[in-house]
Specification:
- The protein is α+β, with helices and mostly antiparallel strands and 352 residues long.
- Strands 2-1-5-3-4 form a five-stranded mixed β-sheet.
């Protein structure tokens, strides 16, 4: 192949270069060619990523003898004319083969269908061929009828599925009267507790109706057990190390409550906490709010009590690993932070 640059006419190929311009699916690529046809086909297949088992045809239309028509290059002619090939079109022959084979099959199918009726054998009349076509139509009609019956039968099964779903979700709907009994009022809670005692179940079970089952009643018992300790709270001291501290909060629920903490400069901050929160977390939050070093801070509890007709106040340190309820802290507790001085930490080191 000989070529000259369109930018610089002085730049041109030195002699015939074994390279051709190949096009495949609107993609152009320079590919090296050789005298061996199979070797060139392998290079084209690898360059355009064509399947190895594909039947590839090479076409050319740039030669004068082609007169603008695309002519297939046969393997026998390629080895003679490969030096004159400049622009080649790559075509996969499988697509054309499929198009050619589909047309005869369709024509043959049209020819074979009417043969039983068009060419009757000797001794047979036109009426003998009619039953054959009628049977064929009957078979087609029966096939369509069977398909329609299957389609018509499909919606019949849908109510069965919905009925099963309704029966499966029936128990949650029967639990609605139980929720109504639970929300009728606060004054009826003791009556709801009596219906589970062996001595007083008659009147309440008759009000609930026969649709109530034991599975529907059990969730109400669990809810009442959780609420019951709140109604009858009795403060019992859980911490015996400090008898002068107030009693801890009840153990049923652990609601949030507000506490007030004062720093050494009499700055006040309010926090929300629970009885299960440890002292170290409350202390860390207070130190962060007051910009106080946590390592030298202690959370103190001030208790005031009467002694000999006068009021006295004592201070207790809340251990960091104890909880707020264990230290008897509630929303009325007086909490403040005590910070160790720097010299207090250096004295043990000097004494050693």
């Amino acid at each position: 192949m000989h070529f000259i640059s369109t930018i610089n006419p002085m730049s041109k190929s030195e002699g015939n270069i074994p390279v051709s311009l190949f096009s495949f699916n609107e993609k152009l690529m320079f590919i090296g060619i050789s005298e061996d046809y199979e070797d060139t086909i392998r290079r084209v297949t690898r360059a355009f990523k064509i399947a190895e088992n594909a039947d590839i045809l090479l076409r050319i239309s740039t030669l004068d003898v082609c007169k603008g028509r695309e002519v297939v290059i046969d393997e026998s002619a390629y080895s003679v004319m490969w030096t004159a090939l400049d622009e080649i079109t790559v075509v996969i022959d499988e697509i054309e083969a499929q198009n050619q084979t589909q047309v005869p099959e369709a024509s043959r199918a049209r020819e074979t269908l009417p043969t039983p009726a068009v060419t009757p054998t000797a001794g047979q009349s036109d009426t003998d061929a009619d039953p054959v076509r009628i049977d064929f139509l009957n078979v087609v009609e029966e096939a369509h009828q069977s398909e329609e019956e299957e389609i018509n039968e499909e919606p019949v099964e849908e109510p069965k599925v919905t009925d099963g779903e309704d029966s499966f979700y029936q128990p949650p709907r029967s639990a609605a009267p139980v929720r109504e009994l639970e929300t009728t009022g606060d004054g009826e809670e003791p009556k709801l507790q009596k219906k589970f005692k062996p001595t007083g179940t008659g009147s309440i079970l008759s009000d609930a109706g026969p649709s109530m089952t034991s599975a529907d009643i059990i969730p109400a018992v669990k809810k009442e057990n959780i609420v019951q300790p709140i109604a009858s709270t009795s403060q019992v001291p859980r911490r015996e190390r400090s008898p002068q501290r107030p009693n801890p909060a009840p153990t049923g629920d652990d609601p949030r409550f507000d506490i007030t903490v004062t720093d050494p400069d009499n700055h006040i901050a309010q926090f929300k906490t629970r009885g299960k929160h440890p002292i170290r977390k409350v202390l860390a939050a207070a130190c962060k709010s007051f910009s106080i070093p946590y390592e030298r801070a202690h959370l103190m509890l001030a208790l005031s009590f009467e002694d000999d007709g006068g009021m006295q106040t004592e201070e207790f340190e809340c251990p960091p690993e104890d909880t707020m309820s264990q230290c008897g802290v509630d929303t009325n507790s007086k909490l403040f932070i005590r910070v160790d001085e720097d010299n207090e930490e250096e004295e043990p080191a000097d004494s050693d």
